[in-house]
Amino acid sequence: MTYQSVAKRWENEKSLPKNLKNELLKMNQEELKEAFYQDLAFGTGGIRGIMGVGVNRLNVFIVKKVALGFANYLKKNNPNKQLVVAISFDNRINSNYFAQTIAKVLAAQKITVYLTKELRPTPYLSFMVRHFKADGGLMVTASHNPKEYNGIKAYDKHGGQMMPFLTDALIKEINLVTDYFNIKEVENNLINIVDESFDNEYLKEVYQLQLKANQAKPFKFIYTPLHGTGGTLIEAIKKQTNYLIYPLQKQMIFDGSFPNTKSSNPEDEIAYELALEKAKEENADAILATDPDADRLGIVVKHEGEYLFLNGNQTVALQVYYLLSELKKMNKLPDGVVYYSNVTTPLIKNICDSFEIESKEVLTGFKYIGDAILNSEKPFLFGAEESYGSLVLPFVRDKDAIQAVLMLIEMVTFYLNQNKTLRTVLLEIYQKYGYYQEKNLNFTYPGIKGKEKITKIMNHYYQHPPKYLLELPIKVINHKDQTITEANKTVKSELEFANVIKYVYSNREITFRPSGTEPKLKVYLHVKGKTLKEAEQILTETVAAICQESEEF
Fold it and tell me: 153, 212, 397, 413: which could form a disulfide with 160 (CB 3.0–4.6 Å)?
C-alpha cells in the first residue's frame, strides 16, 4: 500500500479521536509521507517515536497493535500457560493512558497483568517482572528523548530487555496485527494494581549495595529527577540512609512537558541549570540527575570551588574502581565479571586487569549485559555503559539509576571523608592507568532523507577510515561483516552482528553507530595520552577531524 492509501484509511476511520483527525487533516504532503511511509520500528530500546497520527508515529492504535502482538507472541511461545505481564510507565504525556490501554488489551487476551498505580522507574519494572515471575514486561517510556516522544520497552521473563532474536519474533507477531482499529479491550480482575507499598520490596534490594552504610554523612547532595520517575523513590532513600539529599522541588513535579528544564537528558549540561543554582545556594558537594525513566544518572561534583561535570565513561570508571578496590580491602572480592558495552571507555578493562578481574565487552544496549548475566557461570560484579547507565546488583536486569544514585552518594561521601573529591580520585586513576578522555558526537539527520543520509555515511565508513587523521588504523572491528582486520589480515570473528564499525589507532578509538531510537549518527571517541594535556589535545584533534569530514556528506 502507498502512504497515501494508508493515510486515507486513517482519515476514514470513524474511531479516530478528534485530535488525531484534526492533525491528519492539517498535514501537507511531506508531513503525510513522514507519518505514513513506514511502520514505527523497534530499535535498541524497543519501539520509540514522536507522538501523533500515523503508522510511523506513536498513538493509541499503535500501542494497541504492539500490545496485541506481544500477547500473541507470548501465547505462541508459552502454550497452555496462564500468562503474566508486568506494566509500568513514566511521566510523559500519554504514558499512563498508554499503560492502561496495554493492560486492557492483555486482559482481553486473558493475560494476568500487574500494573503500577503510579509512574515508576524502568528498573522498577524489571524488578516487577522478576518478583511476580512474569512472562514478560512492558514499560511505557521514551527514556531521555525530547518531550514529543514516547515509546514502549519490551522485557523478557528474566527482566532484561528483549534480545534481537526475541524481538524479531515479536515484530513478526506485531506486523500480523493489521486491524489495529478494532482491538478488543476489557477491564477485569486480571488487572492487578501495584501500589506504593511495593516500593519497599524494590528498595530493600537497593540498600544491599551499600559498602559503607555507617560512615559520617555531613555532605550535601542536590537531586533532580528532571520531572521524571526517580522522584517517586528519593524521599524514601533519603529517610532510610540519612544522607543530606536536597530534592530540586521545581523538577520534582511529574510533568511530561518538562516545564522547568531545558533538557530531559542528563547527558546535556543545560539540564543542570536550576540544579547548579540550588547547589551554589546550599554549597552542595554534588548534583545527581536521573533521566525521566530513571535508568541513567548524571553527576556534577564540586572540586576546588568549581562544579565539574563527569561524563558517563568517567562515572562508570570511578564506580568500577571504587567497587573493586573496596571489596578487595574487605576480602570480599569474588572471582566475578564486569561487563561493559563496546562504546564504553577501555579504561574499564585496564582497571579490571589490575585487579585480575575478568571484563567482557558486549554490544551497545543494556539487554546484552542482561543476557550476559543470565548466561554467565561467574558472579556478576558490575555492568557499565558510557551513556550514563550502570548496574550494581543484578536483582534487576537493566541499568538502574536508583542504584547508581545511592552508590555515587556513598562514593562521594567516602572520598570526601578523606578530603578527596571524585575529580581527585579520577586524576589518581589516570595517573595509574593512563590519561583517558572521551567524547560522543551526535549528528542529527531527521526524516526520510536523514535516514538515507545515515545509511550513506555508514556505508562510507565501512569502506574508508576517517581521512583527516594523520595516522592509519592498526585495527578495524566490523560488526556488520563480523570481521577484524589487523596487520593487513582480515579474519572472521565471533562478534555479534550490529551496524557498528570501530577504528582502533595507537592512541585512540573511533566508533560509528546509528542510534536505534533517534534519527542520529553517533560517533564515540576514546583517546589516551601520557598526560592529561596530551590526551585533551588528541581528543580536540580527533573531534576536529570527524566534524570536518561530516560537513562533506
Answer: 397
Q: Which residues contact 349 (CB under 8 A, 6 or more apart)?
A: 340, 359, 361
Q: Which of 229, 204, 238 is nearest to 121 (CA)?
A: 229
Among the listed residues 88, 126, 143, 263, the single catalytic one is 143
Q: What is the pTM of this model?
A: 0.95
- Asked if residue 252 and residue 126 are part of one domain, the reply reads no
Co-location of 245 and 348 in the same domain: yes
Question: Residue 247 is part of a domain; what is its CATH number?
Answer: 3.40.120.10
Asked if 504 and 417 sit in the same domain, the reply is no
Same domain, 75 and 187: yes
8 found inside a domain? no
Judge whether 192 and 88 are in contact, CB under 8 Å: no
Going across the sheet that includes 358-362, the strands are 358-362, 337-341, 380-385, 389-391
**529, 535 in Cβ contact below 8 A?**
yes
* Cβ-contact 115, 192 below 8 angstroms: yes
Reply yes or no on whether 143 is catalytic.
yes
Residue 138 in domain: yes
> Measuring CA to CA, which residue among 201, 203, 242 is closest to residue 221?
242
98-150 per-position pLDDT tens digit: 999 999 999 999 999 999 999 999 999 999 999 999 999 999 999 989 999 99
Q: Could you write out the DSSP letters of every residue in 2-24?
A: -HHHHHHHHHH-TTS-HHHHHHH
117 phi, psi to nearest 5 deg = -65, -40
Structural domain total, the chain:
3
What residue has cell string 470513524?
14
Last residue of a domain, which of 390, 408, 433? 433
For residue 278, pLDDT over 90 is answered with yes
DSSP SS3 for 312: helix
CA distances from 336 to 66, 350, 376, 526 (A): 38, 16, 9, 26
Range of the domain at 126: 38-194
Are 331 and 366 part of one and the same domain? yes
